[in-house]
Specification:
This protein has 270 residues and is of the alpha/beta class. Helices cover 36% and strands 26% of the residues. It binds S-adenosyl-L-homocysteine.
Length: 270
């Protein structure tokens, strides 16, 4: 908790019946202009909790708590837990970049998770590889309606701005994919490593470092979540340079465009 403001006191629930949406990313570039947009629309009330800043306000009429998890599964799990317990969020959306794993997923494409799995969890032979011990699960589902609404926002963005984005950034025309995203505490950056992931998990579309941890926490607390990832690299030997240039030049553009359309869509609508 910050010394001046208790997160519980700052919870919008205390003053209004609408519970906020949690919006989460790992790195600042992945949030685009979201916090500035909130500042312009409603003003921002910032609460420091567990060494993270939670920005409370509204964006496009939706009460939101926006924060950065930083990188990795522990960071994502801790931040998701705080969003649930200290800010009483109704749902959580994660926006960010990822490495493409499927050969069909290219830099500039967008992947919306239907399920997520921790590719580095392995308590075999005691438990099957990828299973979270004692929970008996390896794949965690996102919320169907939320993922549908997020994917529809991505499709609208691609239809309206995809060609212009491709020309501007020198990528292929973006496509939207839906399916399995895998997460682990490694930046995957070699042909061998991404090939091993492809072999072990043939339906994996993309790899990143946070989503499956968020999905596990949300499953455990019964909070709906969704994850959208723009492909910054293909998790091979070119990944470090591709990731860095995508992150600095493109990630914010995608995030702004997708979140605007997502927040403008009526709730429950695809
Ligand atoms: N602090 C560093 C490292 C970021 S790690 C930096 O800013 O340069 C990469 C981040 O992007 C993670 O949050 C992860 O979720 C995502 N990501 C993108 N490409 C990835 C890949 N090939 N493997 C794993 N994570 C990837």
């Amino acid at each position: 908790m910050s010394t001046t403001t208790s997160a519980a006191m700052a919870t919008p629930q205390a003053t209004a019946t609408v519970r906020p949406l949690g919006i989460l990313a790992a790195l600042p570039q992945e949030l685009g202009d979201l916090i500035d947009a909130m500042r312009a629309e409603s003003g921002v009330h910032t609460v420091t909790h567990g060494r993270r800043d939670y920005h409370v306000g509204s964006v496009r009429g939706t009460p939101c708590v926006v924060t950065l998890a930083r990188v990795g599964k522990v960071a994502a799990a801790a931040t998701a837990s705080a969003l649930i317990h200290a800010f009483d969020v109704e749902a959580i959306v994660f926006t960010g970049v990822a490495g493409g794993v499927s050969r069909d997923v290219h830099v500039g494409d967008i992947v919306v998770a239907s399920t997520l799995l921790q590719h580095d969890i392995d308590a075999s032979p005691l438990f099957p590889r990828f299973e979270v011990p004692l929970l008996g699960m390896s794949r965690f589902s996102t919320d169907t309606a939320l993922a549908e609404r997020l994917a529809a926002a991505c499709e609208r963005f691609v239809a309206e701005e995809g060609a212009a984005c491709a020309a501007r950034f020198g990528t292929r025309e973006p496509r939207v994919h839906r399916g399995l995203i895998v997460s682990g505490d490694q930046f995957v950056a070699s042909a061998a490593a991404v090939g091993a992931l492809r072999d072990a998990l043939p339906d994996a579309l993309a790899v990143e470092m946070e989503g499956a941890a968020l999905a596990q926490v949300c499953y455990e607390y019964g909070v709906p979540c969704a994850v959208v990832r723009t492909i910054s690299d293909t998790a091979d030997d070119h990944a470090p340079t591709s990731f860095m240039s995508f992150l600095t030049e493109i990630a914010g553009t995608y995030s702004n465009a997708i979140l605007a359309r997502f927040l403008d869509a009526p709730r429950g609508a695809g």
